[in-house]
Amino acid sequence: MAQEASNQPPSSQESVVQVEEVVVTHVLQPADKTPPPPPPTTTTVPVERDSPPQPEPEAPEKKPVEETVTLETHLSKPSNADDSTNDDKLPEFKEESTKLSDLSENQNKALQELKNLVQEALKSHEFSSKEEKKTPPPTASAADKEEQQQPQQQEVVTEAKTDAAPEKTEEEPVETKKEDQVETKEDEVDTKKEEQVEKEEEKKEETKETKDDATVDDDGAKTVEAIEETVVAVSSSVQSQAEEKASETEAKEEASPPLPPEEVSIWGVPLLADERSDVILLKFLRAREFKVKEAFTMLKNTIRWRKEFGMEELIEEKLGDELEKVVFMHGSDKEGHPVCYNIYGEFQNKDLYRKTFSDEEKREKFLRWRIQFLEKSIRKLDFNPGGICTIVQVNDLKNSPGPAKWELRQATKNALQLLQDNYPEFVAKQVFINVPWWYLAVNRMISPFLTHRTKSKFVFAGPSKSTETLLRYIAPEQLPVKYGGLSKDGEFANTDAVTEITVRPAAKHTVEFSVTESCLLSWELRVIGWEVSYGAEFVPDSEGSYTVIVQKTRKVGSSEEPVLCNSFKVGEPGKVVLTIDNTSSKKKKLLYRLKTKPSPSD
């Protein structure tokens, strides 16, 4: 056809644009069998291309050009990048493996070193908080003993000197009597006999004085000896008492058995008990770039904080359900991570804002509620090697109170600080949707202070790209209706597969459900943004039967119900045909799924 068109002579007439039509056919299983998720469908698409205008008399009949279009279900793989209007590539964070066999040699070595440090800390009860940790009373040192002995020695010496003082006063009267006798005898000395007698008496007095001096010396020596004996006795008594106390302490220590190793659990996993402990230790190592000492310090601080915060008691507290619309878990992403939604716009409610942030006590309660919610979510994760042990966070900033609300900023800051210090590597991705301009400005200011690892987990999308961004990571059957998915309470569950198709501008898509037996066929359908025409009909296989209009063709506006649900009771073999006509100049995203049930009896 292309060659034939190129051989025709050019013409000045305007070319006519034909509408592209795509037909998708599904063959349904019998009603009593559960149909498997629809596989990728290969569709033959007749497309009429624009061709150069030709002279009317010689224009040959056009033949449609056949194209093969492969449609895929949106269960696990992200949509094709070509279908996205967002030219900016989203930062991709590849989550590391938690299997020991996938670790490098250095990483395995660091993990073993950290395990050794944890083992020693458990033996010495190092993880206990400072208030709970019992320390033995300090033992008296040698210097302390000397200080205790010195006052006792001084007291003994003082008492001994006081007792010895009167003995020295007895010498004075003896010397006085001696001088009086000498003076009397000097007056009477006239003869040699008297001199001799005097000499003899002097000799006697000298002998007597010598004896008295000897007596005094003996008494002083005895006093000094007594003092020394007393000091030695006191010293030996004090030393013996200290030795007795030391021996008693040693005997008690030998008699009491050593304390068993401390048992510590974190997020419901006992440390060093099994393989799950390795997965948790890897989180601390990765948060500190496999620096063992820093990872151990972080782990120790986290365990002590959890005890001080009363984590086990917090889990059982009843903190109310006023904030259940602010933070909630819903479904999972394409890799199986649980998804947590944080809806900041709920705080536009002034009453809720006042009850949550008006004073310090209320902000503290909000913080405890948020930590409790996170703890309960984490304990549902799989910490076995290779299991899903991280969460995807979706932060909806639509109608967020903004930076002017100091109380909200303060509470958020405190919560983020606690999460950063005590919950390492629990976020697989942070998706921010409906992002206002001021938030991007704030993010640009704090971005230089964030690590490359942290920034690689961030994804930002403005209001016009939020649904498209979420569908990159979350399948439509897992995504809530308010964010562009099909997940809601009703006939269909999150396990019912959804098919996703891009409807190009000025194109018509026809989806056919072939039915071979009597059944009740149900389907739900959504076009993101709508503004397209939709109709449904049943076409019997029998030539003599009539086509049944299930849904009259009409244009569906963007303000209408986002998801349309229909059902049709099939009584004979045939097919249900859904038609989506996109007459706009923008491409549209079509989501649909179907199921069959046994036909109810009349």
Task: Give a short overview.
With 602 residues, this protein is of the alpha+beta class. Among the domains are: 99-122 and 263-309, N-terminal domain of phosphatidylinositol transfer protein sec14p (Helicase, Ruva Protein, domain 3, Orthogonal Bundle); 310-474, CRAL-TRIO lipid binding domain (Phosphatidylinositol Transfer Protein Sec14p, 3-Layer(aba) Sandwich), CATH 3.40.525.10; 492-598, GOLD domain (Jelly Rolls, Sandwich), CATH 2.60.120.
Portion of residues within helices: 25-40%
CATH class of one domain: Alpha Beta
| Integer-rounded radius of gyration | 49 Å
Low-confidence stretches: 1-17, 31-91, 131-147, 151-186
Structural class given helices, strands, pairing?
alpha+beta
Could you tell me the number of beta strands? Answer: 18
CATH architecture of one domain: 3-Layer(aba) Sandwich
* Helix run count: 14
The shape is elongated
Terminal CA distance reads 54 Å
Please describe the biggest sheet, giving its number of strands, its sense, and whether it closes into a barrel.
5 strands, mixed
Q: What share of residues are in beta strands?
A: 15-25%
Strands of the largest sheet, in order across it? 1-12-17-14-15
The name of the CATH topology of one domain is Phosphatidylinositol Transfer Protein Sec14p
Q: Would you identify the CATH H-level superfamily of one domain?
A: CRAL-TRIO lipid binding domain
User: What do the pLDDT scores average to?
Assistant: 76
GO molecular function: lipid binding
Keywords: Cell cycle, Cell division, Cytoplasm, Lipid-binding, Membrane, Transport
GO cellular component, one term: cytoplasm
Family: Belongs to the patellin family.
